[in-house]
Amino acid sequence: MKVLLTENQIQSKIKELAKSIDDFLLKNKKNENDIPVFISVLTGSIFFFSDLIKNIKSDIIVDYLKVSSYSGDTTTYNVKILKDIEIDINDKIVFIIEDIVDTGLTLKKIIEFLKDRKPRILKICSLLDKPSKRLAKIKVDYKGFEIPPEFVVGYGLDYNELYRNIPYIFVYEQQNSK
Ligand code: IMP
Ligand code: MG
């Protein structure tokens, strides 16, 4: 098994990301009633989302969006919204929290979908970025790690729904699954 990122590497990166996000929120909040909305893109971002928001000191509201785009390790290029958010994001600072940006097609769809609701600021934060496979032009405002074009699992990321519960990130190898 090829471990790509250990629990320690992930947690220390999350602390850095949370700090820069807090700095941004302090500078961009209009007033005390302007509470930012953090949206977890299910299911892959569950651990990243919970660890990240535990390190954020500003008041925030959380919500969840579920999309589907993958079957196995190849994209179907057919991004569907399976669960909508429930909070009104009009005029709000909104952070989309993703596990990984690969082709960028999932985020492109999510951004178009959420922009219709007129958030004041829309920021993207992703734990992982695979820039070499990009098809849609996406700006990842806050990113944890750039990784090579390999299929990775663990810490929320799955292969056919498996391996999400492993606390670190490793490269998935077809022959020898762990
Ligand atoms: P994109 O639309 O190609 O950018 O893919 C984004 C989604 O595909 C992510 O939110 C993941 O759910 C999934 N994905 C992309 N690459 C990987 C990977 O290496 N491991 C697990 N899931 C992945
Ligand atoms: Mg995902």
Helix and strand succession? EHEHEEEHEEEE
Biggest sheet record = 6 strands, mixed
What's the overall average pLDDT, rounded? 93
SS strand fraction: 25-35%
Based on CA inertia axes, which overall geometry fits?
globular
Uncertain spans = none
List the bound ligands.
inosinic acid, magnesium ion
Percent of residues in helices comes to 10-25%
Structural class category = alpha/beta
Gyration radius, in Å: 16 Å
Number of strands: 9
Number of helices: 3
| Distance N to C terminus | 5 Å
> Taking strands numbered 1, 2, ... along the chain, how are they ordered across the largest sheet?
4-3-2-5-6-7
Q: What is the topological layout?
A:
Layout: E1 2-5, H1 7-28, E2 37-42, H2 46-54, E3 61-71, E4 74-83, E5 93-101, H3 105-115, E6 121-129, E7 142-146, E8 152-153, E9 169-171
Helix pairs in contact: 1-2
Describe the structure.
By secondary structure, this protein is α/β, with parallel strands linked by helices. It contains three helices and nine strands. A six-stranded mixed beta sheet has the order 4-3-2-5-6-7, with helices on both faces. Strands 1-9-8 form a three-stranded antiparallel beta sheet. The longest helix has 22 residues, at 7-28. The mean pLDDT is 93. The protein binds inosinic acid and magnesium ion (MG). The site of inosinic acid has 17 residues, from strand 3, strand 5, helix 3 and strand 8.
